[in-house]
Amino acid sequence: MRHRRVLVGTLTAVVFAALCALAAWRAAQIQAAAAWYGILPPLLAVSLALVTHRLLLSLALGVLLGGLLSAVPSEPASLAAWGAGLLSGPQQVLSAVTDGTNLQILTFVALVLTTISLLIVAGGLQGIVRWLARFAKTPRSTQVVTALMGLAIFIDDYANTMIVGSSMRPMTDQQRISREKLAFLVDATSAPIAGIAVISTWIGYEVGLFGEVSQSLGFGKDGYAMFFDALAFRFYCILMIAFVLTSVFSERDYGPMARAQRRARESGAVAADDARPMTRGALAAANAHPAARILARTAVVPIAGLFLFLLVALWIDGGGGQKLQAGIGHLVNPRTWRDVLGQAENSIAILAAASGFGLLLSLATCRLWAGLRVVVMGRTLLSGLRASLLPITILVLAWSLKGTCDTLETGRFLVDAVGEVLSPLWFPALVFILAGVTSFATGTSWGTMAILIPTAIPIAFQLDGQSYGLTTMISLGAVLDGAILGDHCSPISDTTIMSSIASGCDHIHHVATQIPYSVTVGAVAVVCGYVPAALGVPSWIGILAGCAVIVVFVSVVGKRPGPA
C-alpha cells in the first residue's frame, strides 16, 4: 500500500510539473501578469509531501521545478535555457549550503542534537524527568509544564524549540503524550511568544522594518512606538497562546491530533506506525548508559549555560556594556534589554556559539558527574552528528526552495494579486490572510514581513487618508501575525522543521495535526479580532471574545483521549 501511494504521488508530481511548465510557457507567450507560476514550486512541494510523506523527494522536486521555471518560460525552445534551468536547482542548494547565516543555523542544529545525544546517554535528561515528575505527574500536568516552559523561554524561537522539545520529550513519552502534541506545544509557544515579547531576538528585526516604512511614509514615529501600537492587534499570537493553555488544561483535542492522542494513550505508541521521526536512528534509540550516574544537573548545567551564554552575548553585542557603565540599574531595566536585543546584529552567530558552549559544558558534566568514559562520549558524539544529517538535509532543501521562490518573486506575486481597491473594513483581515498564504508558500515568516510591510502598509496609509491611523496600526499587527500563521502551517518552514526535530516527530504528521489548530485560531483572529477592530471595537474586547470562543469551541468539539 505504501509503495502504491508513493508511486501514485510520484506520477502525480511528474504530470503536475509538466502541466506547470506548459502553463508557465503559455503565460509568457501571452504576456500575462507577474510570474504567477512562481507559486507552483512551493505548491508542488507542499502537496506532494502531504500525499506521499516523502519530504526529501518533495522538496527536491520543488527546487527542480523552481529552477526550470526561472529559465525556461522566457525561452521554451532553447536547450541552453533548459540546461540553465536544470542547473539552477543545484545552484540554489549550493547557495543555501554556503550562506553564512544558514551555516550558523546548521551548526546550531548539529551541536544541539549532539549535546542532547550526550545528555541522554549520560542520564542527564532522565534526571530532569525524575525532577519534573514532582510537577508533571499526569498527562495534563506534563502538558502544562511543557507549555509554560515554552512561554518562559521567549528570547529566541530556535532556542525555545530545541530546549523545550528535547528536554520534555522523555517526560511526554512516559506520560503517553503523542509526539504530535509535543511538537505542537513546542511550535505554538515559540514564534508567537518570541514575536510579541518586548525582549527577544525578533523585536530588532520587526522594529527595523517598521522604522524603514515610517521614514519612507513620514509617520513621524520610531519603530518601537509602532511596535507597541501594533501589539494590541497581535490577535493570532495572543489567541494561539490562549488556545494552547485551553488545550493543555482541558486535555481536549480534535481532528488528527485527537486521534494521535488517543493512539498514544491507549496503546502507548507515542508515534504512528508509519512515522519517520526527524531524529530517527541513533539519537531516537539512545538510552542512558548502564554505568552512568543519573543526575539532573548533568543536563541542567549545559542547557542553562547555553541559555545564559546567549543572553550575555546578546547583551554585549547590542551595546549593553556601554549602558552598564552609565549605571548598574540598566541591568534590570526591561527597556534597556529591549533596546540592547534590538541592536544585536549577530544573533544567529551567537546562537551557534552558545550551542558550542553548551556542548563543551555537556562534555564536562558527562565526564565529571555522570562518570562516562571518554570512549563512550566519543561514540555518542559521532552518533549525535549522524542523527543531525537528516534534519540538516531537509533544512538545506527548504532554504533552496525559498531561494527559488525569491528568484521567481513568489511573495510579490501574491501581494500584487490582491490589488489596491479595498475597503478599510476588510483590508487588515485580508492582509492577515495574505501574509499567511505568503508565509505558507515561501516557508519564511521574516521574509514575508520584509515583503509585506513595505508593500501593504503604504496601502493602509492611503486607506487612512494619508495618515497614521487605525487601519495602518491594525495592518502592522496583521502582517506580523499572518506571517506566523503561515509559518505554523508550512511544512517547508525552518521553525516548523526544527520543532519536529526537537520533538522526535514525523514532520508531515506534525504539520497535518497542527494545521487544523492554526487555521482555527486564525479564523477566530479574523472574526473576533481584525474585522471588529477595523470597525473601531477596542482590541481588548476582541481578545476576550476570541478567548471565550476558543474555550467554548475546544470544550464542545474537543475530546479527551481517555485513561491509559
3D architecture notes:
The chain has 564 residues and is mainly α. Among the domains are: 1-97, no CATH class; 100-200 and 280-391, no CATH class. It is 76% helix and 0% strand. The chain has 28 helices and no strands. The protein is globular. It starts with a helix and ends in a 7-residue tail after the last helix.
Overall mean pLDDT score? 79
Shape: globular
Q: Which range does the strand content fall in?
A: under 5%
Distance between the termini: 30 Å
Give the proportion of residues in helices.
Answer: over 70%
Provide the low-confidence segments as ranges. Answer: 1-9, 19-33, 281-285
Gyration radius from CA atoms, angstroms = 24 Å
Order of helices and strands: HHHHHHHHHHHHHHHHHHHHHHHHHHHH
The class by helix and strand makeup works out as: mainly alpha
How can the largest sheet be summarized? none
User: How many beta-strand elements?
Assistant: 0
Give the number of helices.
28
Secondary-structure map with pairings?
Blueprint: H1 2-29, H2 40-52, H3 55-71, H4 79-98, H5 100-121, H6 124-132, H7 139-152, H8 157-174, H9 179-188, H10 191-196, H11 203-217, H12 223-231, H13 235-250, H14 255-267, H15 282-285, H16 297-317, H17 320-325, H18 334-343, H19 347-368, H20 374-387, H21 389-408, H22 410-416, H23 427-442, H24 445-463, H25 470-489, H26 494-503, H27 507-534, H28 539-557
Helix pairs in contact: 1-2, 1-3, 2-3, 3-4, 3-21, 4-21, 5-19, 5-20, 5-21, 6-8, 6-16, 7-8, 7-9, 7-13, 8-9, 8-26, 9-26, 9-27, 11-12, 11-18, 11-24, 12-25, 13-27, 13-28, 14-27, 16-18, 16-19, 21-26, 22-23, 23-24, 23-25, 23-27, 24-25, 25-27, 27-28
